[in-house]
Amino acid sequence: MSADILVEGGTVVTLDPERRVFVGDVLLRGHKIHALGPTGKVRPRRVTQTIDARGCLVLPGFVQSHVHLCQALFRGLAEDQVLLDWLSEYIWPFEGAHTPASLRASARLGIAELLLGGTTCALDMGTVKHTDTLFRVADQTGFRLTSGKAMMDKGHIRPGGLRETTEESLRESLRLAKRWHNKSKARLRYAFAPRFILSCTDELLRTTAKMARELGCLLHTHASENPGEMEAVRAATGKDNVEALHALGCTGDNVVLAHCVWVTAKEQRVLRETGTHVAHCPSTNLKLSSGIARVPDLLQAGINVGIGADGAPCNNRMDVFTEMHLASLLQKPKYGPAAMPAQTVVEMATLGGARLLGIEDQVGSLEKGKRADVVVLDAKKPHLRPVVDPYTTVVHGARAGDVRDVFVDGQWLVRDGELTQMDLDDILGDVEREVDGVLARAGAVPRMRRP
Ligand SMILES: [Zn+2]
After folding, report:
1. Same-domain check for residues 116 and 249
2. How do 32-38 and 411-415 pair as beta strands?
3. Are 342 and 102 in contact (CB under 8 A)?
4. pLDDT value of residue 450
5. How many Å lie between the centroid of ligand 1 and the Cα of residue 26?
6. Do the domain assignments include residue 440?
7. What separation in Å is there between the alpha carbon of 221 and the centre of ligand 1?
8. What is the CA(222)–ligand 1 centre distance, in A?
9. pLDDT, tens digit, 9 for 90 and up, residues 162-211
10. Separation of CA 180 and ligand 1 centre (Å)
11. How far is the CA of 248 from the centre of ligand 1 (A)?
């Protein structure tokens, strides 16, 4: 039996129902949190390894509600574009050129970045093919991943590597769900992922919604991101995006819609009444010039909102701290300085994400019996002192580089700022090799060579 681990003497920000914050200890046993409490309250009774967390913040692992690990390899390769051009001229040709080896390199790069920055869990959208590779990488690295293959059975601009019929798309999705949903002590989960309404037939969306519900899986798609996309959706369906999805059965408490920048009051009602979740991706919405989601209105309406960095080529960092900082700042000019207080934002990036994934009984807060997904953030830094309110320190001060230790399911995956289960040099070497292969296969201009 492995030793218990005692994270000792940190400021513990629990996010539990009472939102307790105390200086004390967290005891990890196996893959769960065994006990926690103020200094002196937790008494380990077995062989225990102690981690000194004095001067640190101890937080639940962050949950990102929308990412694309398959795009980590394309960071910096699709700059200054608007959404539909960004997709059709860059991202789809690149995704279509993925091999299992390049996808593996991309997923390992993405997971390394997420873990080092304190993200322990993510909802991911894969590309059309090679989805087993994503799950295998998550399995090997210890990361907590919900993912699914992108479904795309419509549209004339899809490159060869992304083409599939309705039947192929459904069959492969079903196979993957059966293979991966709730595997590795439920650390891996499957989410059906029709890419967005413009690349999916009505039949695909209707059948997928039914299939996801029957199998107890999420349905994860993009909606109402950008004005050009909204116009195209209206031209194709005669409806606004969320309304069109609703008519096809693609709303509900197992549905996550990324973005929702341009939802009407009527669509907001649909989101609320159906319990549909929203993944807010502020950096991406700014970088692709899409707009600013009216998150305070969504929260006010009782809609659950999580936070995600989206893909590396539209952000370009998969850093939850950047997203939290922006999620707060963005709303203040319009809604006033009290909008999006730091605690609300931390809740979105922990409990909100867990709720959206349907696993709030397992992650999202530090509570006895929950999974041991824990982040130790080193607050002994000039840019973080003095710590007055820990939520403010996290949202407005902290950076990914301040993360010192990360546990997922009790596994110590980042120790003193270094990955324990992944070889970073090996990952970066793979990236250099595989990105050139993708560009060559996609027929794209070779990237600029750095000396
Ligand atoms: Zn996305």
Report:
1. yes
2. unpaired
3. no
4. 47
5. 35
6. no
7. 8
8. 6
9. 999 999 999 999 999 999 999 999 999 999 999 999 999 999 999 999 99
10. 21
11. 21
Q: Are residues 345 and 377 in the same domain?
A: no
Q: Answer for the pair 148, 176: CB distance below 8 angstroms, yes or no.
A: yes
* Residues facing residue 408 across a β-bridge: 411
What spacing in Å lies between the alpha carbon of 372 and ligand 1's midpoint?
A: 28
The CA 67 to ligand 1 mean position distance, Å, reads: 6
Tens of pLDDT, residue by residue over 433-448, are: 999 999 999 987 666 5
Of 357, 390, 406, at which residue does a domain stop? 357
Q: How far is the CA of 437 from the centre of ligand 1 (A)?
A: 23
Please tell me the predicted confidence (pLDDT) of residue 330.
97
- Separation of alpha carbons 323 and 327, rounded Å: 6
Q: How far is the CA of 196 from the centre of ligand 1 (A)?
A: 9
- Do residue 95 and residue 207 come from a single domain? yes
**How many Cα atoms within 13 Å fall on the side-chain side of residue 150?**
27
Q: If you measure from the C-alpha of residue 66 to the centroid of ligand 1, how many angstroms do you get, rounded to a whole number?
A: 6
Q: How far is the centre of ligand 1, averaged over its atoms, from the C-alpha of 424 (Å)?
A: 26
Q: What is the per-residue pLDDT across 289-335, written as a single tens digit (0 to 9) for each? A: 999 999 999 999 999 999 999 999 999 999 999 999 999 999 999 99
Question: How far is the centre of ligand 1, averaged over its atoms, from the C-alpha of 356 (Å)?
Answer: 16
Residues 227 and 156 in one domain: yes
Q: Report yes or no on whether pTM surpasses 0.90.
A: yes
Same domain for 377 and 245, yes or no, is: no
Q: Say if residues 181 and 135 touch (Cβ distance below 8 Å).
A: no
